[in-house]
Design brief:
The two termini are about 20 Å apart. The protein has a three-stranded antiparallel sheet with strand order 1-2-3, with no helix packed on it. The chain has two domains: about 30 residues, no CATH class; about 40 residues. The model has no long low-confidence stretch (mean pLDDT about 80). The chain is of the alpha+beta class. It is elongated, with a radius of gyration of 17 Å.
Length: about 70
C-alpha cells in the first residue's frame, strides 16, 4: 500500500478505468477468503512465513494453493 499513498501525495486522485480496475481487484482480494484444500502427502509442501517483533505468521501450501494458515 505504500506505493498507493506515495502516488496520492504527489498528485490529485484521478478515477481512470485503470484505477477502477485496480481498486476492484484489491477490494476482491481483501474481501474473499482463501479456499483451503486437503494436503497430498506425495507432493511438495511450500512454506511462506513472516515474522515481526511480536508475531509469526505462515502459510503452508501446495502448487500455490493454501493448505493451512498460521497466525
Amino acid at each position: 500500500m505504500a506505493s498507493i499513498t506515495g502516488y496520492l501525495k504527489n498528485r490529485p486522485f484521478a478515477r481512470t478505468p485503470k484505477v477502477v480496475l485496480a481498486f476492484g481487484l484489491i477490494k476482491k482480494r481483501m474481501s474473499s477468503t482463501p479456499v483451503l484444500r486437503h494436503p497430498h502427502f506425495s507432493m511438495v509442501f511450500e512454506v511462506a512465513s513472516n515474522a515481526s517483533g511480536y508475531r509469526i505468521r505462515g502459510v503452508l501450501s501446495q502448487e500455490g494453493h493454501p493448505i493451512t494458515l498460521f497466525f
